[in-house]
Structures are given as structure tokens and as C-alpha cells.
Design goal:
With about 250 residues, this protein is α+β, with helices and mostly antiparallel strands. It contains seven helices and nine strands, in the order E-E-H-H-E-H-E-E-H-E-E-H-E-E-H-H. It is about 55% helix and about 20% strand. It starts with a strand and ends with a helix.
């Protein structure tokens, strides 16, 4: 097994780590995805933050693998996580009908710790145009209200001190166009992530061929397999985006 470095560039900060075992590789991958999730979910305007993060950061991953099968498996797992992230972000885009999922990324300052709203309150949908948020701890009702207002979702909560009601206003035609653009941007970011994972996988098997661990034909076969995974997940992203845009455009 070879020791290869992991270099992670986040904005102006650089982290470099070298791993020698598969378990450490898995931990490093979890750290990267965890950081990405935290960055996205803790931002008041997660869509803009995700776009800035994608455009301003560069991730170069060169990990230690014992076989090309591990490379392919790692690529598939990371692509699946990218798809999950796309779908989660799409859920938060409102369509003019009440949906509790639009509050999934709202973070509440709960005694100094950013906490998902759905962990500190129950969220219900009494009708198609309204959500109700019932904090388990009534003393944080003001914090919950503030978190919703600052979430970037364009919602105005009404707090009676016990239950917070959110009326979902109809979406104007201009707003629908804006939301459609946001959906497409989320999809493009997801596809960029998947293609970057493909690049990492292809680079890894090429290094194995160069080191003499695998032959030229085997290297080509694994590159083809990774490309097929890429095509599969890109298509899945396109399907999810198309469905969400249809929901957004439905009056």
C-alpha cells in the first residue's frame, strides 16, 4: 500500500494530511463531507454560501487505496453523498405550498450552539398555506423566530409566545423564475461535485497503473466503470432538478 497525501483547500486555508490505512481514509472522507454539510447548513443563505464555496475552493484528493475496487467503491459512496446533498437542498426551496422540509436547514441558536430547528421544535402543516412551529422549550421562541427570519427563505413568522405560525405566500412569476434558477444552480453544483469525484477516481487508478499495480487494460476498465457511475448520478441529478422545477412552476 502506498501513502498518498490528502490536500484540502478551503478558501484561504490549507489542510494537508497523509494516511496509510483505509480506515483513516474513510475518516478523512467523512470529515470532508461533514465540513461541507456544516458549511451549507449553518449559513443563513445556504444556496449562496454553497455557490461561493464551490467557486472559491479547490479540493484535491489523493488517497491510499489497496485495490482499484476500493477506488470505485469510494467514488460511488462519495457520489451518493453528493446526490443526497442536492436532494436535501432542493427540499428547502419552497413552491408556494406548505412543506415542513423547507425548514430543514434552519439553524437555531440553542444556548450558544447552532441546532437544527427540527430538533428543538415540532413542525406541522395545518393546511396548504401554513406551517406551525411549536418549540419544545418555550423560552427559545424568540430565537426560533429570529432563525426563520434570517434563514434566507423569505418567510415571515408570527410568534404568539407559544406557537409560531408561518403563512406561505403565493409565489409571483418573477419569484418562480428566481427559484428555477436556484434549482438549476444547485443541480450544477452537484454535477461539478460528481465530476470532481470521477477525476479523483481516474487519477487514483492511473497512479496504480503507473506504479505497476494494475495493467493498462484493467486501468481502462476501471476508468470506464467510474465514468458509468458518473453518468448514472448526473442523470439522477437532472431528474431531481427537473421534478423540482416542475413543482416550482406549478401554480
Amino acid at each position: 500500500m502506498r501513502v498518498l497525501p490528502i490536500t484540502l483547500l478551503l478558501g484561504s486555508s490549507t489542510f494537508g494530511v497523509a494516511f496509510t490505512t483505509t480506515s483513516f481514509v474513510q475518516r478523512s472522507t467523512s470529515f470532508i463531507h461533514g465540513f461541507s454539510s456544516l458549511t451549507t447548513s449553518s449559513s443563513p443563505n445556504f444556496i449562496e454560501m454553497e455557490k461561493r464555496f464551490t467557486s472559491s475552493s479547490s479540493t484535491a484528493l489523493q488517497m491510499a487505496f489497496e485495490s482499484p475496487d476500493e477506488v470505485e467503491l469510494d467514488a460511488e459512496e462519495r457520489m451518493e453523498k453528493s446526490i443526497d446533498s442536492v436532494k436535501k437542498n432542493l427540499l428547502t426551496i419552497r413552491t408556494g405550498r406548505a412543506n415542513a422540509a423547507i425548514l430543514d436547514l434552519v439553524q437555531v441558536d440553542y444556548y450558544g450552539a447552532p441546532t437544527p430547528l427540527n430538533q428543538v421544535a415540532s413542525i406541522s402543516v395545518p393546511n396548504s398555506q401554513q406551517l406551525t412551529v411549536d418549540p419544545y422549550d418555550k423560552s427559545i421562541s424568540g430565537d426560533v423566530e429570529k432563525a426563520i427570519m434570517e434563514s434566507g427563505l423569505g418567510l415571515t413568522p408570527n410568534n404568539d409566545g407559544s406557537v409560531i405560525r408561518i403563512n406561505i405566500p403565493p409565489i409571483t412569476e418573477d419569484r418562480r423564475k428566481e427559484l428555477t434558477k436556484q434549482c438549476k444552480a444547485i443541480g450544477e453544483d452537484g454535477k461539478v461535485a460528481v465530476r470532481n469525484i470521477r477525476r479523483d477516481g481516474v487519477d487514483a487508478v492511473k497512479k496504480m497503473e503507473k506504479a505497476g499495480d494494475i495493467g493498462k487494460d484493467e486501468c481502462k476498465d476501471y476508468q470506464d466503470s467510474i465514468q458509468k457511475l458518473t453518468d448514472k448520478f448526473v442523470k439522477e441529478i437532472d431528474t431531481a432538478i427537473s421534478k423540482k422545477i416542475t413543482d416550482v412552476e406549478t401554480v
